[in-house]
Amino acid sequence: MPLPRITGLLATAALAAVLALPMAGCKTTGGDDVTGSIGSQREPRTDAEWRRAADYWEPRYEANTADAEVAMRYAQALRATGRKTQAAAVLEQASIKNPHNRALLGEFGRALADVGKLQQALEVLGRAHTPDQPDWRILNAQGAVLDQLGRPQEARRHYASALKIKPNDPSVLSNLGLSYALTKDLRRAESTLRQAAAQPGAEPKVRQNLALVVALQGRFDEAEQVVRADLPPAEAAAAVDELKQMIEQRGGVQRTGQPSSGRRGKSRG
């Protein structure tokens, strides 16, 4: 995993929120539910593979913009290569032509959150499932958007509902942990993120979120050990050193203790 990607993830809006600074966006988990591989069941992993996936799906999408599955796969590759506005536009067009496709609506809602259209994202995600047939992935995404809107209690109710359907899911637990971090309850954030990281199948971003919260409490050596699970030692040290500098520039480490009761700024997608 390249260093810029790791440091970019560690320097999420969660960091800015915990340090009481304005936020542009916050990194969530659980947003990439649709895979998009070329001729196989394996999802692309590297930037080059994702670019090839985008090249593969682009002509297929252009040939039939109403094909929901193709649109989702193309949009996923666009999001993975940083073309989030284009991904949202692709999914918007597909959703107009497939207004009752819940999987498509779920992807469109996530893409809207990616580009900061949070209220619209919440409305679209609400149409992606129903109360009698809730989807834990959509509940997770709704929680992330609510957190970004500064509504943590509502967000946590959505995470709780998701965990009733999918107990101990690491992506939901990770978002819940960041929710606590965003209201400066770092002790509970760390506990929740450790629970998430301990789950089978926990992705690197879960451990990276844990490293962020540990670092925010001034335990940089421990944060580096967490990051080393996914990076060579030199890259892990450089990533945490960059994170340490950012924390120091924004006011220093936070003390664990009583959580903040105030609202935070705008947030993660």
| β-sheet strand percentage | under 5%
Largest sheet: none
Total of helices: 14
Our measurement of the CA-to-CA distance between the termini, rounded to an integer number of angstroms, reads 20 Å
Structural class: mainly alpha
Summarize the amount of helix as a percent range. Answer: 55-70%
Rg value: 18 Å
Account of the 3D structure:
The chain is mostly helical. The protein has helices spanning 3-10, 13-18, 47-63, 68-80, 84-97, 102-114, 118-126, 136-148, 152-165, 170-182, 186-197, 204-216, 220-227, 233-249. Helix 6 (102-114) packs antiparallel against helix 7 (118-126), helix 11 runs antiparallel to helix 12 (204-216) and helix 12 (204-216) runs antiparallel to helix 13 (220-227). The longest helix has 17 residues, at 47-63.
Tag the structure with descriptive keywords.
single chain, 269 residues, mainly alpha, disordered N terminus, disordered C terminus
Short description:
This protein is mainly alpha-helical and 269 residues long.
List the helices and strands and how they pair.
Elements: H1 3-10, H2 13-18, H3 47-63, H4 68-80, H5 84-97, H6 102-114, H7 118-126, H8 136-148, H9 152-165, H10 170-182, H11 186-197, H12 204-216, H13 220-227, H14 233-249
